[in-house]
Amino acid sequence: MYDMLSEFRVSEFDSFVDILTLTRGDPLDTFGKMWYPVFLWSLCSSVFVHTCAALVSFGTLRKHKYGKFFPVLLIVMGVVGPVTSGVASSAAIAFIYRASDQVMPPVHAMIWGIGQTLLGAGMGFTRILATL
Where, per UniProt, does this protein localize (predicted)? Predict the structure, then answer.
């Protein structure tokens, strides 16, 4: 019987730098090897976007009594979003690749991770959820 948890070992994960520089020796062929890079790309791209927004926010609101603390909330949301919804969506993507017995190239992991951030930013800018 197929056991997904047996494929999910910490020793299989590459280093943070290897994933972000797309240098990968062995293919992304197990659930853990696929999930981790997609999640890291999602987390890093979200933190980057939210840090840029926090810098703009701080530059604009630096003289406001309480507004100067708003960038801290932006950076926290840049981490909380991928840690909650990013974990689940990265696991869903990795599960689909694994269930179809496909090997995920590292570039696809980058595209899926950054795509999650872009989709979240697009939802925030369009305010489509406010219309529901």
Answer: Membrane
